[in-house]
Amino acid sequence: MADVKERKGDGKNKYSIIIPTYNERLNIALIVYLIFKHLRDVDFEIIVVDDGSPDGTQEIVKQLQHLYGEDRILLRARAKKLGLGTAYIHGLKHATGDFVVIMDADLSHHPKYLPSFIKKQLETNASIVTGTRYVKGGGVHGWNLMRKLTSRGANVLAQTLLWPGVSDLTGSFRLYKKSVLEDVISSCVSKGYVFQMEMIVRATRKGYHIEEVPITFVDRVFGTSKLGGSEIVEYLKGLVYLLLTT
Hints:
- Pfam families: Glycos_transf_2.
- Component of the dolichol-phosphate mannose (DPM) synthase complex.
- By secondary structure, the protein is of the alpha/beta class.
- The protein contains nine helices and nine strands.
- The chain has helices at 2-5, 28-38, 57-68, 84-93, 114-124, 145-162, 178-185, 194-205, 229-245, and strands at residues 14-21, 43-50, 73-75, 99-102, 128-132, 139-141, 174-177, 210-214, 216-218.
- It has a seven-stranded mixed β-sheet. It has a two-stranded parallel sheet with strand order 6-9.
- Helix 8 (194-205) packs parallel to helix 9 (229-245).
- The longest helix has 18 residues, at 145-162.
- The chain is globular.
């Protein structure tokens, strides 16, 4: 057990990985294991922001704390679902790293890409490194044609109207310098899935250096998708809002 809890690091940078959860009991243990597997020589902490999951997600996280250590796995729960954007703000309050990674708990963002994010940032001194499905080497696995067309169409529409400077505006797998995330997040007003789009648009307008890393997005294996018709309407409203305010 002691060897699992032993921390390794290069003595330079620390990374805080914020993972919002709601009913992710079947996924959270595996994604934590994969993060530890792929970041063996990196100093990091995982901050799980759970919005009162009724499926026992928090109990699983507490077991993971016993295995890996409460200094490596931080559970920062909230009483109910309060939105994705506020989950990141809540997690950021507890982050002690120099950099912050935001990623999903449902295994759609594979931790194997984290070393590439870190390497890209170190090579370019980027303020933000974002994963993209829409460059060579990136892609999507497990989506039907209609969902692929919807996602691609949403990105093309946003690219045309907003000129955000990145190829995947709606992606949610990113690495930020902590100070940059604190600055950008303070100027965002959106909640839910629009939050990611507003974040990258605001960062572009502020002149931050953004780099991209190709990733393959994999549709969730366990649990049900939280994206529905209401989120699509919210996205379109958010697009209009950003067009008028940025």
